[in-house]
Specification:
Strand content: 15-25%
Number of strands: 6
Strand order of the largest sheet: 5-4-1-6
Distance between the termini: 38 Å
Helix content: 25-40%
Order of helices and strands: HEEEHEHEHE
Oligomer: single chain
Low-confidence stretches: none
Largest sheet: 4 strands, parallel
Mean pLDDT: 91
Radius of gyration: 13 Å
Structural class: alpha/beta
Length: 103
């Protein structure tokens, strides 16, 4: 709870977090699939993305909106100092590492 307060994240929400690049060598890192899974959940879930690039975060936010999910539950932080990452990890209920490969 203290980590969420320091980061101004909702203290009463279930927060799924992702830390890392949003794509690499032109390939999605699977955050789009994570958004689809959150949209399929009956439970209201917040998503916090730590990483970049920002253009990809904008595309992911558009996908979030297309699912009709609350704007208030989507937070794209962008890149942070490596020393700040543990604070974000402490604030997440779950840290997701989606992989776009099925093989």
């Amino acid at each position: 709870k203290a980590a969420r307060q320091r980061l101004s994240l909702p203290t009463d929400a279930f927060v799924v977090g992702y830390v890392g690049r949003l794509h690499t060598v032109g390939i999605s890192k699977g955050v789009d699939m994570l958004i689809d899974a959150i949209a399929a959940s009956a439970r209201p879930i917040s998503l916090c993305l730590v990483g970049g690039p920002d253009e990809m975060a904008e595309q992911l936010q558009a996908r979030w909106r297309a699912h009709g999910l609350s704007e208030a539950r989507f937070l794209a932080v962008g890149q942070v100092k490596p020393s700040e990452v543990p604070l974000y990890l402490a604030a997440f209920d779950v840290c997701a590492l989606p992989l776009p490969f099925t093989e």
